Amino acid sequence: MTVRALEFYCGIGGLHFALSRSSLGGTVVRAFDWDQCACRVYKANHSNIVTNVDISTLVAADLAALKADLWLLSPACQPYTILNPKAKDASDPRAQSFLHLIQNVLPELGSTNQHPQRLLVENVAGFETSTTRQILVSILHSLGYSTLELLLTPLQFGIPNSRLRYYLLAKKAPLDPDAIDHGSPTNSVVHDLRRYLDRGYDPQEFLVPDKILKKWGRLFDIVLPSSRRTCCFTRGYTQLVERSGSVLQNNEILDVQPEAVKILHPLGLRYFSPEELLRIFDFNSCDPRADLEPAFHWPDDISTKTKYRLIGNSVNIRVIQELIDYLFED
């Protein structure tokens, strides 16, 4: 029987892509997100199953009617991220919709015998020490779920991106924490960045502006096409400098000059393009033949700034795909 999934905080559909590429081959029957731009992008890639809604308004009766076996959830990370000095954990307004799902909706589904058999939750590293996590695990255990919590980065799956994330897997059956290591691609050989870069791009299009180089150039995390690591790309990429993602050094030879901007100019520093980030996040293939028909595409009127924001809020599909396969291994 085909597994039916609900996708909460769906964004641009990373969880959906991961499910469709898994060995399970399940179906997302409904997706939910409050962000109108994200919903438009989702609809362009996955048809009209997405609902633009405040998730805190969802009720158990409506979800029960969808008869879902699997919940996929990637709730807001701002209440838990170290990048937000004002993060308030469970008291943050952005945490309330997730707490509503866990504290109200999920227990109520028991009265209709419509508990999902499995759940997958993704969030930032730091969530594991939160009050929200304590509430989540406590309620899942009280409802008869077994849980497994992991901190994983795409580097462990051969992808040159150090995006450490928290994952929780839950199911109405025992979970073997040792089984995830058997046949797992973790600690694979990491590919270099050349594999992910655009072909035939305009070298001037994504150059870092001189005014940014002059003021903030010393803070950039600079990587080469031969590098096998990039920093975590966030929704603030190209708008922020520190801890928002790496920049690419096109030229590997530096002729040192006295002025800061002149020193940095020969490096050809540029931002990664949205399409390159889509490959790093595994939305689209690195195979040049596959790029002729990319799996993911943007609506025509989505700005570059919005693309960066939406990608930064998304998930690494390869990691999620592997976890879904493990969750259904039995």
From TrEMBL:
Domain of life: Eukaryota
Record key words, sorted: Methyltransferase, S-adenosyl-L-methionine, Transferase
Annotated catalytic residues: 77
GO molecular function: methyltransferase activity
Keyword check for S-adenosyl-L-methionine: yes
InterPro entries: C5-MTase, C5_MeTfrase, C5_meth_CS, SAM-dependent_MTases_sf
Keyword S-adenosyl-L-methionine appears in the UniProt entry: yes
EC number: 2.1.1.204
Gene Ontology biological process terms from the UniProt entry: methylation
Cited Pfam families: DNA_methylase (PF00145)
Cellular compartments per GO CC: nucleus
Family note: Belongs to the class I-like SAM-binding methyltransferase superfamily. C5-methyltransferase family.
Protein name per Swiss-Prot or TrEMBL: tRNA (cytosine(38)-C(5))-methyltransferase
Organism, as annotated: Laccaria bicolor (strain S238N-H82 / ATCC MYA-4686)
Lineage of producing organism: Eukaryota, Fungi, Dikarya, Basidiomycota, Agaricomycotina
